Amino acid sequence: MPVTRGTGWWKSRYLLHWREGSFLTCWLSLCAAETLLTCPSSCTCNSSSLEVDCSGLGLTIIPSDIPLDTQTLLLLNNKLTTLTGSVFANLSALHYLDLSHNFLDLLPQDVFRDLANLTDLHLRNNSIRALEKSLLQRTVLLRRLDLSINGLSQLPAGVFDDLTALHLLSLRSNRLQNLDRETFEPLVRLQKLQLGDNPWECDCNLRDFKHWMEWFSYRGGKIDGLECTLPKELRGKDMRMVPMEMFNYCSQVEDENGSSSVDQTGTPCAKDRPPLLSEPKAEPEPESSTECSQKQRYRPVSVRRAIGTVIIAGVVCGIVCIMMVVAAAYGCIYASLMAKYHRELKRRQPLMGDTEGEHEEQKQISSVA
Ligand SMILES: *[C@@H]1O[C@H](CO)[C@@H](O)[C@H](O)[C@H]1NC(C)=O
Ligand SMILES: *[C@@H]1O[C@H](CO)[C@@H](O)[C@H](O)[C@H]1NC(C)=O
Ligand SMILES: *[C@@H]1O[C@H](CO)[C@@H](O)[C@H](O)[C@H]1NC(C)=O
Ligand SMILES: *[C@@H]1O[C@H](CO)[C@@H](O)[C@H](O)[C@H]1NC(C)=O
Ligand SMILES: *[C@@H]1O[C@H](CO)[C@@H](O)[C@H](O)[C@H]1NC(C)=O
Questions:
Q1: Does any ligand 3 atom lie closer than 6 A to the CB of residue 92?
Q2: CA 78, 81, 86 angle in degrees (round to 5)?
Q3: DSSP designation for 228
Q4: What one-character DSSP code corresponds to residue 294?
Q5: What pLDDT digit, counting tens, does each position of 80-109 carry?
Q6: Which of 10, 41, 195, 302 is most buried as measured by Cβ atoms within 10 A of its Cβ?
Q7: What are the start-end ranges of the H helices in 152-298?
C-alpha cells in the first residue's frame, strides 16, 4: 500500500525498537527514525519494495530526506536542472534510479559515488551535453544505462571503463558523430547497444568502431540501426551494411601521415568525396588513388610541396649544368693552353736535348780517349 509521510514501513521499525528498549532510547530512536526514515513530502513510498516515487511533482530540487534504505528512487518528469554532488550520498542500497524527463545538464563527477549497488540508471530525455570521465567509476554493478535523448556529442575516453556488468546501453538520439572503439571495449557483458538517431559520420574516424561492432555482433550482441548522415553518398545507409573494404583507403591515409590516428581535427578525408561506391577506381593518377589526398586541408600543402620540389630541383639542375659547362669550358681552355705550352716546350727541347747530347758525346769521347 502506498503511504505518505512517515507511516507504514518506517513506523513498524520504530515499533520494534519500542518493544526492545527503554522509553528514552525509544524516544530517541523515534526521533532518529522520524528524521532519517520519513517518506519525503508529496512522494509515495512502498514499504515492501522499498520504493520512493517522487515523479511528476514539478520538483526543482531532490528531497534531502530520502530514506537511506531506499532501493528504488523515481524522480522522472520533474524540473530538475542540476544535481549537487551529495544529493545521493549514503544511498548505497539504491538499485534503481530514474531521472528521466528532466532538464539535467551537467552531472557532478561524484554524484553517483555512493551508489555502489546501483543496477539501473535512467537519464533519458535530459539536456546532458557531456559526461565526466569518472562519473560512473563507482557504479560497478550497473546493468542498464539509459542516456537516450540528450545532447551528447562525444564520450570521454574511459567513461565506461568500470562498467563490466553492463548489459544494456542506450545512446539513442544524441549528437554523436563518431565513437572510439576503446570506450566500448571494457563493456564485456554488453548485450544490447542502442545507437540510432545520431548524426553518424561514416568515415575513417568510425572505422575502428565498426571493427568493434562486427566483433560485438559476432559474440551475439545486438545493435540497433546506425544510419550514416555523412558523407552524402552514404546518407541513410546502415553503417553495419557498409562493407569493410570501403575503409581500406583509411590505412593509406594513415601511411601517408605515418601515424595511427586519423585526422583528429574533425575534417575527415572522405567528407566531400567518400570512398568508392560510385566509382571504385576512378582516377588512375597515383596521387588520387590515395583517396585522402583529396582532403582539402591537406591537398594544397602537398601541391605546394610538389611545386617547391620541382623549383628546387630545377634550380639545382641549372646550377649543376652551369657548373658543368664552366668546368668543361675551363677544361677545354686549360687543355688548349697546356697543349700550346707543350708544343712550345717541345719546340725548344730538341735544341736543348741536342746540345746536351753533344756534351755527353763529347764527354764520352773524352773519357774514352
Ligand atoms: C509495493 O511493492 C510490492 C512489492 O513489489 C507490490 O507487490 C505492491 O503492489 C506495491 N504496492 C503499490 C501500491 O504499488
Ligand atoms: C553519510 O554517512 C556518513 C557516515 O555514515 C555521515 O558522516 C554523513 O554525514 C552522511 N552524509 C549524508 C549526506 O547523509
Ligand atoms: C549493497 O546491498 C547489499 C544488500 O542489498 C548490502 O548488504 C550492501 O551493504 C550494499 N552495498 C553497499 C556498498 O552499500
Ligand atoms: C522530454 O521531456 C519533456 C519535459 O521534460 C517532455 O515535454 C517531452 O515530451 C519529453 N520528450 C520525450 C521524447 O519523451
Ligand atoms: C598527422 O598526425 C598528427 C598527429 O599524429 C597530426 O598532428 C597531423 O596534423 C597529421 N597530419 C596530417 C597531414 O593529417
A1: yes
A2: 100
A3: E
A4: G
A5: 999 988 889 989 999 999 999 999 998 998
A6: 195
A7: 181-184, 207-218, 248-257, 286-289
- pLDDT confidence tier of residue 287, bands split at 50, 70 and 90: very low
**Helices 9-20 and 23-37: crossing angle, nearest 10°?**
160
Report which secondary-structure segment, H or E, holds 349.
helix 299-368
**Could you tell me the distance, in angstroms and rounded to a whole number, from the CA of residue 288 to the centre of ligand 5?**
19
pLDDT for residue 294:
39
Collapsing DSSP states into helix, strand and coil, what is residue 3?
Answer: strand
Query: Which of the listed residues 90, 92, 110, 112 should we mutate to test ligand 2's pocket, taking the one with most ligand atoms within 8 A of CB?
Result: 90
* DSSP three-state, residue 283: coil
Task: Tell me how far the alpha carbon of residue 223 lies from the centroid of ligand 1, in angstroms.
Answer: 34
- Ligand 4 center from residue 197 Cα (angstroms): 16
Outline where DSSP puts E strands in 119-191: 120-122, 144-146, 168-170
Whose grid coordinates read 582539402?
296
The atom of ligand 3 lying closest to the CA of 117 is 1
Q: Are 55 and 74 in contact (CB under 8 A)?
A: yes
Closest ligand 1 atom to the C-alpha of 46? 1
Greater model confidence, 232 or 322: 322
Q: Which three cell numbers stand for residue 351?
A: 735544341
**Angle of CA points 136, 142, 148, to nearest 5°:** 75
The β-bridge relationship of strands 72-74 and 96-98 is: parallel
Residue 38, phi-psi category: left (phi > 0), alpha (psi -120 to 50), beta (remainder): beta
Domains of the chain: 44-273 (3.80.10.10)
pLDDT at 263 over 60: no
Categorize the per-residue pLDDT at 254 as very low, low, confident or very high, splitting at 50, 70 and 90: low
d(CA 116, CA 112): 8
Q: Which three cell numbers stand for residue 310?
A: 620541382
Assess whether pLDDT exceeds 90 at residue 347: no
How far apart (Å, rounded) are the C-alpha atoms in residues 166 and 57?
Answer: 30
CA 50 – ligand 3 centroid, Å: 14
Nine cell digits for residue 22: 527503554
Helix (H, G, I), strand (E, B) or coil at 181: helix
Q: pLDDT per residue over 179-215, tens digit each?
A: 999 999 999 999 999 998 999 988 888 888 888 988 9
